[in-house]
Amino acid sequence: MIRLLVIFLILLGSVWLGIQLYQDPGYLLIAVNNWTLETSLWVAVIGLILVFFLFHFLFLIFNALLNSPKSWRNWLSKRRAQKAQVKTRKGLIEFSEGYWAQAKNHLIKALPDTDTPLLNYLTAARAAQEMGDNNLRDEYLRQAQHTMPEAKIAVELTQAQLQLANHQWEQALATLRHLQVLAPQHPYVLKLLIHLYQELRDWDSLLKLLPELKIHQIITDKEIKELEKSAYLQGLTEMVKHHHGEFLNELVDTLPKSLRYDPDLMAVFGEYLISINEQERAEYILRKSLRREFNEKTIALYGMLTLKEKPLEFATSFLKHHPNSNALYLTLARLSQNENLWGKARAYYEESIQLKPTPIAYAELGLLLEKINDPTAACNAFKKGLLLNATSTDIIG
Q1: Which fold is adopted by the domain 76-147?
Q2: Residue 323: helix, strand or coil by DSSP?
Q3: How far is CA 214 from each of CA 191, 225, 233, 255, rounded to the nearest angstrom?
Q4: Are 156 and 189 in contact (CB under 8 A)?
Q5: How many C-beta neighbours within 10 Å does residue 189 have?
Q6: For 286-296, what is each residue's pLDDT tens digit?
Q7: What is 150-219's CATH number?
Q8: What's the pLDDT tens digit per position in 358-375?
Q9: Which residues cross the membrane (predicted)?
């Protein structure tokens, strides 16, 4: 509506101007020496306007000619940037598709003119590692850091990731420790350290890292508890394996309250104590653990004790709440043998077998029956144990 009104006003003004020109064209005389120019006023005005536009047009052409080198350079720069974007996109697609060499080439060729040099260098470094060229990978990482010094953390994080993926544990450790100095609270740095310490089986360092994980809430409370237990369990297991008794005791003494009598941890420690004949201490920690939580493996280990009276009485107390535990009956049978209670031992073995037949239960029952001079029953127990063992193994053993 407004446009129509404007057009109407322009037409109206044009008509009015035309009428004025027709009725009173005016008169203009210009005399210079012997030269004169005479014309109507309106023609002179229109002529001046045309001359103005002509000079303005000539000025624009002249200005364009003066600035043409700069414009040409700008055009070339824009053109190169567009080509660099195309190469970068192509390189990223090739990287995603697993064409490592082609991806690396396109990403590097785009570098002089790309506006994403960090992305190009880091992705090219990943491609170089996939090609197995670690030296080229490290060179691209150095170039990335040189190109964008402010992205130091991003570059070193990528370096640590690549070193971990390449199983370069010592180099990754050095990189991550340097990152810890640069960014002590960086969540991804701490997560990578968790992974690295697990790979290195450096349980002591992993345990020392736990307080930071808790403070900065890097992982959930549940994950922290699982990680803590796993670290202690792996540490105990490896110390037992390598017979590091002194360090094992130190580690047990540092257990947090929540894990002090954890069944899985105490099973490892209890088995070790039994193996070195520290019966009293083994009985104490296994008893504490069982009081806290009944566990099949822990009660089975309790049956390996050779102490008199006290173990049998304690183990019997679990029958009321765990009447269907074959491990409990097997333990009671073994402890009854320690007390020379042959009848009870036999009954407990038979109850264990009834709940869950196992070759070891049959074998121990057979030995007991031989001891009490019942060779026929002993032979039958041995036979059943052998048959059970044979049917539970592979055809080729």
Answers
A1: 1.25.40
A2: coil
A3: 12, 10, 20, 17
A4: no
A5: 22
A6: 999 999 999 99
A7: 1.25.40
A8: 999 999 899 999 988 888
A9: 41-66
Residue 256 CB neighbours (<10 A): 13
Name residue, tokens 């009834």: 354
DSSP 268: H
Q: Kindly report the backbone phi and psi dihedral angles of residue 31, in degrees, each rounded to the nearest multiple of 5, phi listed first.
A: -125, 125
Q: How confident is the model at residue 396 (pLDDT cuts 50, 70, 90)?
A: very low
The CATH fold assigned to 318-396 is 1.25.40
Residue-range domain boundaries for the chain = 76-147, 150-219, 220-309, 318-396
- Is it true that 220-309 and 318-396 share their CATH fold? yes
Average pLDDT over residues 4-31: 67
Average pLDDT rounded to a whole number, residues 25-47? 66
CATH, range 220-309: 1.25.40
Two tokens, residue 223: 């994950």
> What residue type is assigned to position 184 of the chain?
P
The SS3 assignment for 370 reads helix
**Hey, is 77 helix, strand or coil?**
helix
Q: Are 230 and 263 in contact (CB under 8 A)?
A: no
Contact 197, 209 (CB under 8 A): yes
The two three-digit tokens of residue 134, written as one number = 């670690």
Name the DSSP class of 259.
G
